[in-house]
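Deliverable D2.4 — example input (structure tokens):
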């Protein structure tokens, strides 16, 4: 299989939903918003249930560059698919503006082909997303490895200006984001607890379960 480089720009998107509406959004997303976003130049990297919050949906998408991001987002959000389904999608959401704009740390993000979609379902039972201050000592990798987890990507804040102002992103922050996947939820939870009570507790720990069509 030919491997392609990972996206140069990644959005980590956290949506707060109306109570009980997450499954409706996931069904709509997995049916209507994966191939249609990728057809206009994005890569949908993963979509997840937050196991710590029943009303939060988390997903990641990537772009080849900041200019490519502007073009792809305009094509999708001005296009027929979003126009047909935006009312249903927006009806599930309270807030969709919690977005980190990121870039991969050199040699620390997997080629997207390694995240095969629909190949027997997601490869992980749980994914841990770690959001930390960018200058924080990155002592997370040994804890993940010792527990049998796999560190699959590492990102840092993209400092460039938001090229699509119609979709807000969090500004004025400098963070690092780590993504690790685990074969079982219990181990992932134990690692999250260890990091939360460690000497350098991250800003945020997201314990995530991949949806059926997530690349993870």
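Example output (designed residues):
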């Amino acid at each position: 299989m030919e491997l392609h480089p990972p996206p140069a720009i990644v959005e980590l998107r956290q949506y707060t939903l109306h109570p009980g509406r997450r499954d409706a959004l996931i069904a709509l997303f997995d049916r209507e918003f994966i191939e249609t976003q990728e057809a206009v130049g994005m890569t949908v990297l993963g979509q997840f249930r937050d196991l710590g919050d029943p009303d939060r949906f988390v997903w990641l998408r990537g772009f080849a560059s900041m200019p490519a991001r502007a073009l792809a987002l305009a094509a999708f959000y001005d296009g027929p698919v979003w126009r047909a389904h935006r009312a249903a999608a927006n009806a599930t959401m309270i807030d969709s503006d919690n977005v980190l704009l990121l870039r991969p740390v050199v040699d620390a993000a997997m080629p997207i082909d390694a995240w095969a979609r629909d190949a027997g379902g997601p490869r992980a039972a749980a994914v841990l997303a770690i959001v930390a201050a960018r200058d924080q000592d990155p002592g997370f990798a040994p804890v993940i490895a010792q527990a049998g987890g796999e560190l699959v990507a590492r990102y840092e804040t993209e400092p460039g200006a938001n090229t699509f102002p119609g979709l807000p992103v969090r500004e004025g922050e400098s963070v690092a984001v780590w993504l690790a996947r685990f074969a079982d939820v219990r181990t992932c939870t134990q690692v999250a607890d260890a990091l939360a009570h460690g000497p350098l507790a991250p800003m945020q720990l997201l314990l995530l379960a991949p949806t059926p069509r997530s690349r993870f």
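The chain has a mean pLDDT of 90.
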